[in-house]
Every structure is written in C-alpha cells, then in structure tokens.
Amino acid sequence: RLPMVAWEVPANQNEWKVVAEQFEKKWNFPHCIGAIDGKHVTINKPPGTGSFYRNYKNSFSIVLMAIVNANYEFLMVDVGTNGRVSDGGVFSNTEFYRRLMNKRLHIPEPDNLTGTDITQPYVLVGDDAFPLSNNLMKPFCRKNLSREQAIFNYRLSRARRIVENAFGILASRFRILLSEINLCPEKAIEIVLTCTHLHNFLRKKKGAIYNHRGYDFEDITTGEISNADWRSDEQSQLLQLETLPGRNTPVPAKEVRLNFLRYFTSEQGAVAWQNNII
What we know:
Layout: E1 4-7, H1 13-27, E2 32-42, E3 61-68, E4 74-82, H2 87-91, H3 95-101, E5 111-112, E6 119-120, E7 123-125, E8 136-137, H4 147-173, H5 185-205, H6 207-210, E9 217-219, E10 224-226, E11 239-240, H7 251-264, H8 274-277
Parallel strand pairs: 2-7, 7-8
Antiparallel strand pairs: 1-4, 2-3, 2-11, 3-4, 5-6, 9-10
Helix pairs in contact: 4-7
C-alpha cells in the first residue's frame, strides 16, 4: 500500500461543530461530521504485483476513500490502498481512522441533540459496506423494516447522498479518473489527489460553472428524486467498492443508532415530509 492523504479537516471542536451544523441545517442529520465513501480508480497492472491490485470486477485499481462535508467538498482523502479491499477495510487503515480512535481529531464530546436530553456522539454517515460503530452510522438492513427504521434509513440517505454527488461531480469533470491510468501507482495517486484539490478549489471559486452536471434534487412534497446528470451516464461513474455481508456489531453502536432513530421519529427531530416518503 502506498497511501497519500490530503487534509482539510477541522482543527478544533468549534470547526467540527460548524460542519455538523451545516449537515443539520441542509440535510437534517444532527451531529454529522461528514459523509464517507470509497471508489476504485482503475490503473494499468503494475509489473510484478500479481493480483495485489485486482478488484472484485477483475480490473486493477487503487482506492479513493473520502469524507465530504455538507457542501460537497472533500474534508479528508486517502488514496492508494490496493483494489482488493472493501470500504470498511480501507477506512480502518486510514490516518483519519487512527486519529479518530486515538482521539486526536479534536471532535467534540457527545452532547444533547437539539431540543432533547438525548446525548449522542458526533458521527460519520456511510453505507452498508462500513461497520457500524459509535462514530459511524449505516442503514438498517432493508429486509422487513419497521416504519421507524425506514425513517432512519431515509434520513441517513439524505445526508450520505452528498458524498455520492461529490464523487459524481469529480469524475464527470476530471475524466482521467474514468480511464485506466497507465502510470505507476505512485504517479496515479498524485493525479487523484490533485483532482480532489482542484475539485475543492473550483467548488469554492466557480461553483455554478464547475457543477454543470448538477446534484440529485429531492422534491420533499412527493418524495421523488431527480437524479443528477452524471447518474444517467454510466461512463461517468467510478466503480463502487464491494459491499460485505453483515457482521457482528457492538451493542453501544446499536444504541447510538437507536437513539438517532428515536430522535428522528420524535416531535423534536422529525421533518414534516418524512412520513409521506418512506
């Protein structure tokens, strides 16, 4: 593994709280400090590496793992893990994860959700490929969902969709990421990191022009989602990482998720349209 990491991570608790406030204001998920996902970037097979970079689609790739804020901007990018691993496997080997576990990220201590006495940690939101933990929320299994679980999944999906759109915009604008990069892994990593830096710069400086492929748009009166343009073009989409089967989950992490569920279905935490959409 030849990882390289790019950081625009908040430096203190107040800056993290700004990230969380934006997620709550824009996407109705409190205490969210980022949406996380990973994608494969295809490379030419490096000489002498055997199946080390071979992914589940039998191509060769490096993994781009990223955490995105509420404005579609990359907070953390980790590039270079070989394509054989899953989303969760990449995350547990990132510098971000190590700092998170060692409490070196200055993330705020758990506190009460707005208008309640429910004390919750600050969390990332991810998909089924990630392990549920105290600081990473994922959906409930979609089989035989209760109404309350379906509401939780909907609310999490609204927040997690941000990272999907960030990747979609990135790939549609920097199309080298959609081709097989015929360079050594070290050079390919540098290219990917440069693209993410340019994405953040252009998002901030030339947002309306840069985002010409658009975002998903949700009509909250009907529940219908109009997909961003990039979703209709399969050639503009990076390869998803493989989803792993369910695994044992620590009881405290389940309780954190249940607390969010209780909040989202309470008078204080519900949004007016959620019952019409699930």
